[in-house]
Amino acid sequence: MQDIQAIQTQLRDELAAATSEGELEAVRVRYLGRKGVVTLMRKNADFSRMSADEKKHFGQQFNQLKRFVEDQLGQARAARQTSPKAQASIDMTLPGLNSRSGHLHPISLVQMELEDIARAMGFLIETGYHVETDFYNFESLNIPGDHPARDMQDTYWLTNGMLLRTHTSANQVRALETHGVPLRAIFPGRCFRNEAIDASHENTFYQLEGLMVDTDISIANLIAMMKTLLTAVFHREVTVRLRPGYFPFVEPGFELDIQCLICDGGGCATCKRSGWVELLPCGLVHPRVLEFGGVDPDRYSGFAFGLGLTRLAMMKYNIPDIRLLNAGDLRFCEQFPASV
Ligand code: DAH
Q1: Quick check: 221 pLDDT over 70?
Q2: Is residue 49 packed enough to be buried (19+ CB in 10 Å), middle (13-18) or exposed (0-12)?
Q3: How far apart are CA 110 and CA 239, in angstroms?
Q4: Could you say which of 46, 153, 267, 304 has the lowest number of CB atoms within 10 Å?
């Protein structure tokens, strides 16, 4: 008994003095190793001289001591790992484990950039619905049932008479009804047309519609907005020009071109030697559309534009084939950054 208490006290002292993992291991060997104090105690015991009771008593004492040593060692190890001293010994200069970050799709990147700048200009952002009614997609945009413009957009009709929206313009009258005027809003999102797929046509593509309605909105406002947005996307000053274009829901309607960013207008293969690249259709909102949205066209005017997000992403990142965008190939996506 005397021995055992002495051993326990000694062990505690040695553990308290041990400051490293190596020293703790040395203590373990001194007690539990092949020639350790505890091991030898058993080896040296002369069982032939012990009565049955004495053997039993010895066994109990021995097991208790062994468990005590193991517990104390375990506790000392655990304390060492969480002590400030141990933490201070972590080498902060070692390289860490790499965590893999994701990548944003090029269309998301362009969309997020445009959203940031439009938000800063006080524009609402709404995404609308993929499944739309004939009224919002066509009728309210001054495209009645027999209008030839319907043939320009080969529509996926659903069996219940609804359709997959062919353009984000479907949000225009919805937003006028919901928010009234004055209104500034952009509507980014997915659109669908029954197109034969090739390098520049997809049945699923992305647009970003813009709409601003207020008193005294003119073409100057439209041009200013377009220049701001495009400068933000391309990270450089862009030069724009307007050509007449026809869309039933704007009057007058335009095609907006930007000066080719590859040759700065000098003429190259990308701009087909013209110096200009056709980028987005736009115009002043047709009075009929304002009326459908419950807005008085004698008091209010507005501009609208329909940016092809897919086209823009392809131009910005030099993507040669539209099919890459929807293919879901990680090798493609991994070439783009994780944030805007
Ligand atoms: N929605 C038209 C399309 O997808 C594009 C468009 C043209 C939108 C003129 C507009 C606009 O807002 O003013 O073909």
Answers
A1: yes
A2: exposed
A3: 19
A4: 46
pLDDT exceeds cutoff 90 at 319: no
Exposure string of 173-211, with b = 16+ CB inside 10 Å and e = fewer, is bbbbeeeebebbbbbbbbbbbeeeeeeeebeebbbbbbb
For residues 42 and 57, what is the distance between their CA atoms, to the nearest angstrom?
13
User: What is the CB neighbour count within 10 angstroms for residue 41?
Assistant: 18
Which of 176, 251, 305 has most ligand 1 atoms within 8 Å of CB, for mutation? 305
Best residue among 155, 165, 167 to mutate for probing ligand 1's pocket (most ligand atoms within 8 Å of CB) is 167
Ligand 1, atom nearest to 209 Cα: 12
- How remote is the CA of residue 255 from the centroid of ligand 1, in Å? 10
State residue 340's pLDDT score. Answer: 82
Alpha-carbon distance values, 232 to 4, 111, 123, 158 (Å) = 80, 11, 15, 38
Give the residue, by CA position, lying nearest to ligand 1 atom 3.
Answer: 167
Q: Which two tokens stand for residue 169?
A: 């313009």
- Which residues surround ligand 1 with Cβ inside 6 Å? 167, 169, 209, 247, 250, 253, 281-283, 304-306
3-state secondary structure of 313: helix
**CA–CA distance from 72 to each of 7, 30, 68, 325 (Å)?**
12, 14, 6, 62
| Overall pTM > 0.90 | no
Q: Rounded distance, CA 155 to CA 133, Å?
A: 12
Q: How far does CA 210 lie from the centroid of its chain?
A: 23
Compute how many other C-beta atoms are within 10 angstroms of the C-beta atom of residue 300. 20
From 142, 147, 169, the mutation candidate for ligand 1 (largest count of ligand atoms within 8 A of CB) is 169
- Tens digits of per-residue pLDDT, 59-87? 999 999 999 999 999 988 888 777 766 66
Q: Are 209 and 169 in contact (CB under 8 A)?
A: yes
Task: Give rounded-to-5 percent helix, strand, coil for the chain.
Answer: 45, 20, 35
Pairing mode, strands 124-125 and 183-192:
parallel
